[in-house]
Amino acid sequence: MSKPSSIFLCSSCGNEFPKWSGQCPACKNWNTLSELKLQNTSSPTSTTSLKSTTPSSALKTTAKSTLPSQIGELDRVLGPGLTQGGVYLLAGEPGIGKSTLLTQLTLALTSATQNTITYVCSEENAAQVATRINRLQKASHHPDRISLLETSNVEAILKHLNTHPSTTLIVDSIQSVASDTLSTTAGSMSQIRSASNLLIHFAKSTGTPTILVGHVTKSGQLAGPKLLEHMVDVVLQLEGDRHHDLRLLRGVKNRFGPTDETGLFQMTSSGLIEVKNPGSLFLSDQSATAPGSAKTLVMEGTRPLLVEIQALTVPTELAIPRRVAQGIPVPKLQLICAVLTKHLNLKLNSYDVFVNVTGGLRLTDPAADLSLALAIISSYKNLSLPINSLALGELGLLGEIRPIAYLDKRLKEAKNLGYQPLDPKINNLKKLSATLFSSSTKPQKPQASA
Description:
Largest sheet: 9 strands, mixed
Radius of gyration: 26 Å
Number of domains: 3
Distance between the termini: 71 Å
CATH topology of the largest domain: Rossmann fold
CATH architecture of the largest domain: 3-Layer(aba) Sandwich
Number of helices: 11
CATH class of the largest domain: Alpha Beta
Helix content: 25-40%
Oligomer: single chain
Strand content: 15-25%
């Protein structure tokens, strides 16, 4: 047996180096290099002749290469569905619903066509997965077409698939499988790299759609080498707050479809349910507006969602007032408070400001700046915004209201919801505040300020 060699792999950028160093020479991140042991095994030179093809003939052979998942929100993110030979990586926090989503996908595929699914149970035993299948299945499902493979050995998985071919392979998870060619434990960077290489090669050579489940770190990044994200075709991120029932499926990378779509699900006792009316999840009460409440339309993918932002300003005796935000980055809240203090002369330096986005949604859309500012002003002055008002706009440091992306789609959705544009159009926060928070607090017609 030849002597094993080692290289050092950066978990941040995926580059390889012959020696260890505290800082990655490529991405300049610290403490990201870890040892990767390579086993040099001699193998006979392959004499298989290479086969070339033309684009037209390749398209003919893959004309029917996509397989709809039968789950509308999942197909929205994937694009055409599962692609023949495609490798998909599904990542998310523990308990967020990855296994539940894959179980429902397995049942949906077996109910629509004559598909056979191999579900590798490397983290759970077969009885646990079978219990979940029994809980989620419906009359139209055919669980007898599902093969539960209870192993964490990659070679055993491939051997089983060679004798029992399946139309789809699911591995839960890539961090818990290992190869016999390496002496390291499962979950190490060397094992993840070796196991994923073998599974990807199998998927491409046989045309079997393969779904790998991945873990995430404390910071929310995908665990393992960055090279894994480059190797797979699609990277899906399942997000959500475990204290709320909303789940968002984002396409971080997609070689077969769009990367700007988001699938919305609601976690229930019967599994993940597709959200047909997303706005109903993010509004506490549409019939009345209390001081400190403002509504806006944010873009999740190419779909506008109606959400509510709530703010609370409380006098404080602390030298440094608190800025607490849930669903909005704290630096964004601090910036909005600074703009209000400068241009509207609000004495927020003596007030604690608390902000929350209802429904557990995390907002990064700049179009929510205006509604956030109006919610803080409303709470500070203890005056309600006009009933059923809607605010759209990005705030600049000079207090101006800047144009936003996808404005046509947002205004079209606002019109469908019954909102009318505010006339005349105001592009200054000070003027808008004076217009909305007038002495008259009588109910007005639905308005949308942009």
